[in-house]
Every structure is written in C-alpha cells, then in structure tokens.
C-alpha cells in the first residue's frame, strides 16, 4: 500500500465520486488528497456558556439540551424554534428550511454540541441552522477541534460533496495510510530548523489540535515545498553549467586595462565593481553565461556593459548590444563611442533607419571582423547580420524581447555567445529567487554618488494652476519638463482624447514662440516620433507631452520635472520607471503625481509609496504585495504560481532558508547520493517524475 494508490482505495470514495473529485479538483491519488490543504479553519477549541454570550460574538460552540420545540407562524410559511438550555441560561435555535426532518430527528433532553453563527435580537440570542452533534457521537471522533474548510466548487456542492464529507474522506485517508507516509527531509534539516515531522505535519494541517500546532505544521510544509522547488531549480542550473559550454575570455589585457586606467570617466561604485567581478568569473569559467543584470534606472549599467564588451574584444571576440528602441540604441551608441573615442575600437550603429549603403558597409565590417562593437535594435536580428566571431550579446531592457529572439542571436556562431540581459525593472529578491532560480542574477543596488533624490509630491487636479506656475519657474531656470498621460489599451480612444485636451491646455498656458512643446504618442509614425523626441533631447523644446512611449530609457539630463497625469491609473512599476526619466543631471529634480479626488485604497497606497520612497526594490515589494506575483514579469511561466501552501511574498523568510538549505545540500552532495540524503533523494525523484510539478518549473 502506498500513497500513489487511487483515491478509490479510501473508505467511502466510490468510482463516481473519484471521477468527480478528479474532474473538479484534479485529485487522483491518495497523495493528491493528502496534499489538498484546507484554505481556512473554524476554531472549535472554545466552548461558550450561554450567560457569557455577547451581542458581538460571531460564531459560537455551546453544549446544552433542547428542552422544547415548536413551529411558529410567520408572514410567509413558518419557522421551527427550539429552546436550548445549558446550566447558565437559555437561548433559541431556529430553522427555516427542512423543518420536518429536524423536528423528527432532534432528541429532546439529550446533550448536544451546537455550533453556528450567533444572532442577537431584542435581547435574545439565537443560532439559525446550527450544526448539531450529540455529545456521545462528538466524543467518539478523532476529529480535532479546529475544523478544516476545504476549497470546493459548485459542482461538488451540488453533487452532495459537502465539506463534512471531504473531512471524512481525509480522515479515512489518514487512518488508512498514516503509516506509509514517509519523511522527505533529512534529520539534520529537521533538527536544525526544529521542523515538525512529516506525518505530524500532514495530520495537523488537516486536523490541527491547536492554533500552535497548525502554525508548526504549515511552516514545515511550506519549507518542504519551497525546498524542493529550489532543489530542482538549482540542480537545473548546475546541469546547464556543465552541459552548455561557452567561450572562455581568459585574458584581461590591453583594451580593458587601457580603458580602465586611462578613460574611465568616473570611479565605479562598489556595486558596479562587484557585478563586474561576477561577470568576469562567469566568462572565464568555460561555461556559457546567462546572466540577468538588475539595476535601477540610473544605477550605471551601461559602463558595466562596456567593460564586459572590452573583455570580449581582449580575447578576440566581437560584442553587441541590442536595445528596444531606436532612440535608446542611438543613445548607447553615442555614449559608448564617446567613451572609447581615443582607443582603437570600432563601434557602429544598426537600426531600421540605416541606409542600404551604410548597412552593407556594416555587414562587411562585421563579417571580416574589423567591427568590434555593434549596437542596434531588432534590426540586429536580420539574417544578413553575420558576425565573424560574436562573443557576447548584451540585451537592454529585457521585457521588450522574447526568449525566441535571444535564441536567434545565439545561432550566429558555433558556440552560443555569452548573454547578459540588463533590466531596470526591479524584481524583489524573493521572487527573483523563485522565478529565476536557474538564472544567474547580478544586482547593482547602489546609485552613483552625488545623485539627488527626486522630490515627489502628490497633487489633485484642482491644483493644476500652481503646477503650471512651478513649471514656468523651472523652465525659467533652463530646465525641461515631461508631462505624461496614461495609455491603457482598452480605452485608447479616450486616452488619446485626454492627451490632446491636455496638449491644448498646455499650449494655451505655454504659448509659442516663448515656449516650444514636443508631443509624442503611439499613433504617430516612427519617424515623426523620433523627430519630436530629438527636438526635446536637443533642448529645442522645453516641454514634452507624451504617453508612456517615453517609459524606457531615454536620457535627457536637463529634464528635471516629471508630471504624471491621472497617476492613479498607472501601476507602481510604471510610475517608478517614469520618474526615473528625471534626476539624471546635477540639478534637483521633481516628480508631480496628479490625480482626481476619487482614489481607490490601492491607488492611495501606490501614490503614497511613490511619495515615500525612491528605492526601486521597496517599490517592487509593495507592488508584489498589491498585485500578487502573477502580474509581475516572468512569473507566468514559473512554478511559483502553483504553490500549494507557501506564498512567495508572505513566506519570504522561509523561502530564503529553504534556498540556502538547498544550496548547502547540493554543495555537499550534488547527486544526493549520500545516505543521510536518501529521504530527500527519494522525494525529489518522485516529484521530478510528477509531470505536473516538473513542467511548471522547467
Ligand atoms: P542605467 O543603469 O539606467 O542604464 P546609465 O548607465 O545610463 O544607467 O548611467 C546613468 C548615468 O550615471 C550616466 O550618465 C553615467 O555616465 C553615470 N554613471 C554611471 N556610473 C557612474 C559612477 N560610478 N559614477 C558616476 N556616474 C556614473
Ligand atoms: Mg540604460
């Protein structure tokens, strides 16, 4: 007998019931049912005396006797009323439905345990439709005093599978199979975290003896769930590392050193140095690098990218950076060409608007190896673009590119080039750990020195005049201003109208020729967009009115004011990205969040968070709490959403402990072949075989 038996082996579950449970809840085996956890519990650890009942008491459990029962006529039909007494007082039990059956089956003057929602009316207490059980039956049950409530579906309820029935099934399962439940963690782990043994944990999660036992049982099961996910992710990473070979950048020589010693425009922050070390270790290892570089807007990812590319060039390889927009690619191109202009390095730019003649020249230089660094947009992915010897591909702002595109880059060479994906979208550590557990992650968690925090305020629409006044003062000082409008797909037409109305009123307030205004939105042709953006970048216009198209990466250090219209309609991460457009120069910058008076609780929290902090990771944590992990980037394809009992947000401490434990176990015993890890191995193999779990993770 073991837990992989179908649930029809459990007393009371017929073939039809089993089919229904499978169809509705996916429960097939005893193990499935054992791991089908209650989503809440009714605490029946307390008994009340009738004299102690208070009008605000909600659910109560009382021992007493029914002394009298009668039918009372009311407007429509009748109700059945029983007088219920204990040693301290008297109250009523009331039924509106099933009266005949109740009347016939209720035993007068026998002690019952009664449970239900307490009503208080005219100084009298009553319980409508109470749960009732004779004390003598109640005592016979192994059932705990905290009652599990299982998730259910309408079909199940209609088919008579009540919560009580589910409880019975699980109880029978535990009685029949308790002895075959096997421990899945090593003694060492159980001891060091003082975890509840597996059998006790399963028993207590279904039928807890007390709140305290329940907490212990849940902690144990959460740890176990997260531990095995981490074990799988980490093993997958280990296997990839040994299987997929990569180019070896063994030398750090002239290009890198020359740049580092003579042309580095500033001292690197400690975070930049640390990340660079992590990358250097990867690319020298002989394995293929697949690294995610996270760093808040303005944290200085570009210089890390450049130094990494110099490393490639030092070892005879070419390098490329792919950016999501032409503007961004152009900016990278200018910044990087400027930094290496006195070195013997060839850099070029390839975007959709590069003319055929120039394009041919680029292709030629790329193929004969004279071009060291190619920067570009999606245009890089065209088949005609063939590198002589591509060693590393850097992808900026990863959420704009799919994995397929990444893979396409790889095919340009015998071995895949190293991949460095840079993103300014902060992913909370806990989530990154569970979602990207098989990817290497570097974090630049420090801004370059001397950055002034962007001052952020929230203003209501009625304050618009003072906001205009503030804009004028800043423009007077030579600064530039962004005004951003939301663009939400479903109401595009309306958004467009908002934008145009806004543009009108701004134009009235800031008339030409004194003021010049750029406007950029999604319905414009790319060339027109580009032209308007460029005017702002060059300082020819002081105000940029735009939808969120400017969200990603534009760098205009002279822009110091970001005004966000209808800010309550933006998500937190978007607000944070938008704010990151200012505060890039030496001047004090400002972000003004405009909203209507009508704000949802969540909207209030978002705006308050923006006012309170500029730390992208803190903002991401709040975002995760508000929206749940399902809405964050990259989580859709991960297993974290299908967790049975753990929660990556609430249980982040357990997650960290589970991950560290998994790392420690694998470091000691990568194949889980030591006898002390036998239990872990067995459970691990069983899980890996279970296609459901495995496909979620891989
Ligand atoms: P992001 O991470 O958003 O791509 P960038 O690489 O564009 O950030 O850097 C933002 C600005 O900070 C650039 O103007 C860059 O020159 C500057 N910068 C980067 N690193 C440092 C540093 N260590 N010290 C001073 N300035 C730096
Ligand atoms: Mg950048």
Explain what this protein looks like in three dimensions.
The protein starts with 14 loop residues before the first helix and ends with a helix. It is an alpha/beta fold and 698 residues long. Strands 6-7-4-3-2-5-8 form a seven-stranded mixed sheet. The protein has a seven-stranded parallel sheet with strand order 12-13-11-14-15-10-16, sandwiched between helices. A six-stranded parallel sheet has the order 17-22-21-18-20-19, sandwiched between helices. Mean pLDDT is 87; it is low at 633-640 and 691-698. It has 25 helices and 22 strands. It folds into five domains: 7-40 and 152-181; 45-141, Nucleic acid-binding proteins (OB fold (Dihydrolipoamide Acetyltransferase, E2P), Beta Barrel), CATH 2.40.50.140; 211-244 and 644-690; 254-283 and 300-423, Rossmann fold (3-Layer(aba) Sandwich), CATH 3.40.50; 455-613, Rossmann fold. It is globular. 41% of the residues lie in helices and 18% in strands. Residues 266-269, 272, 295, 297-303, 424, 448, 555 line the site of adenosine-5'-diphosphate.
């Amino acid at each position: 007998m073991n837990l992989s038996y179908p649930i029809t082996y459990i007393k009371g579950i017929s073939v039809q019931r089993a089919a229904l449970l499978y169809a509705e809840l996916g429960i097939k085996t005893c193990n499935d049912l054992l791991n089908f956890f209650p989503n809440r519990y009714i605490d029946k650890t307390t008994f009340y005396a009738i004299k102690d009942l208070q009008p605000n008491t909600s659910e109560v459990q009382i021992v007493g006797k029914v002394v009298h029962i009668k039918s009372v006529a009311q407007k429509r039909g009748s109700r059945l009323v029983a007088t219920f007494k204990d040693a301290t007082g008297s109250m009523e039990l009331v039924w509106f439905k099933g009266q005949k059956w109740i009347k016939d089956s209720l035993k007068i003057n026998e002690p019952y345990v009664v449970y239900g929602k307490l009503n208080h009316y005219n100084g009298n207490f009553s319980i409508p439709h109470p749960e009732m059980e004779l004390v003598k039956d109640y005592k016979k049950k192994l059932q705990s005093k905290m009652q599990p409530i299982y998730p259910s579906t309408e079909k199940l309820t209609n088919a008579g599978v009540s919560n009580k029935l589910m409880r019975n099934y699980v109880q029978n399962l535990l009685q029949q199979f308790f002895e075959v439940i096997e421990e899945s963690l090593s003694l060492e782990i159980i001891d060091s975290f003082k975890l509840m043994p597996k059998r006790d944990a399963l028993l207590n999660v279904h039928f807890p003896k007390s709140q305290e036992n329940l907490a212990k049982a849940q902690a144990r099961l959460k740890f176990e769930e997260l531990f095995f996910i981490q074990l799988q992710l980490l093993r997958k990473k280990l296997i990839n590392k040994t299987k997929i070979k990569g180019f070896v950048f063994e030398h750090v020589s002239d290009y890198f050193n020359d740049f580092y010693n003579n042309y580095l425009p500033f001292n690197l922050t400690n975070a930049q140095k640390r990340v660079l070390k992590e990358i250097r270790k990867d690319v020298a290892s002989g394995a293929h690098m697949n690294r995610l570089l996270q760093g808040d807007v303005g944290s200085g990812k570009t210089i890390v990218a450049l130094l990494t590319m110099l490393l490639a060039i030092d070892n005879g390889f070419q390098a490329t950076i792919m950016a999501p927009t032409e503007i961004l690619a152009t900016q990278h191109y200018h910044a990087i060409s400027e930094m290496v202009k006195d070195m013997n390095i060839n850099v070029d730019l390839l975007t959709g608007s590069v003319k055929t003649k120039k394009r041919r020249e680029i292709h030629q230089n790329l193929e004969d190896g004279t071009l060291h660094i190619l920067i570009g947009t999606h245009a890089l992915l065209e088949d005609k673009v063939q590198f002589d010897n591509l060693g590393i591909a850097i992808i900026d702002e990863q959420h704009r590119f799919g994995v397929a595109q990444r893979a396409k880059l790889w095919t340009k060479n015998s071995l895949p080039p190293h991949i460095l994906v840079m993103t300014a979208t902060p992913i909370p550590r806990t989530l990154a750990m569970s979602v990207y557990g098989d990817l290497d992650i570097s974090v630049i968690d420090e801004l370059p020195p001397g950055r002034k925090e962007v001052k952020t305020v929230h203003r209501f629409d009625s304050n618009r005049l003072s906001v205009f006044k503030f804009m004028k003062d800043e423009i007077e000082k030579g600064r530039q201003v962004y005004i951003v409008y939301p663009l939400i797909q479903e109401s595009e037409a309306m958004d467009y109208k908002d934008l145009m109305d806004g543009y009108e009123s701004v134009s009235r307030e800031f008339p030409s020729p004194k003021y010049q205004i750029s406007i950029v939105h999604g319905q414009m042709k790319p060339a027109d967009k580009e032209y308007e953006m460029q005017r702002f970048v060059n300082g020819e216009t002081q105000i940029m009115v735009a939808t969120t198209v400017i969200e990603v990466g534009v760098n205009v250090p002279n822009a110091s004011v970001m005004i966000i219209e209808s800010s309550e309609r933006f998500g937190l991460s978007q607000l944070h990205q938008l704010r990151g457009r200012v505060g890039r120069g030496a001047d004090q910058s400002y972000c003004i969040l405009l909203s209507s008076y009508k704000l949802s609780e969540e909207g209030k929290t978002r705006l308050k968070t923006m006012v309170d902090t500029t730390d992208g990771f803190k903002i991401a944590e709040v975002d995760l709490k508000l929206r749940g992990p399902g809405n964050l980037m990259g989580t859709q394809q991960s297993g974290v959403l299908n967790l049975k009992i753990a929660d990556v947000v609430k249980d982040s401490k357990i997650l960290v402990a589970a991950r560290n434990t998994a790392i420690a176990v694998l470091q000691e015993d990568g194949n889980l072949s030591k006898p002390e890890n036998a239990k872990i191995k067995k459970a691990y193999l069983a899980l890996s075989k279970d296609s459901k779990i495995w496909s979620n993770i891989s």
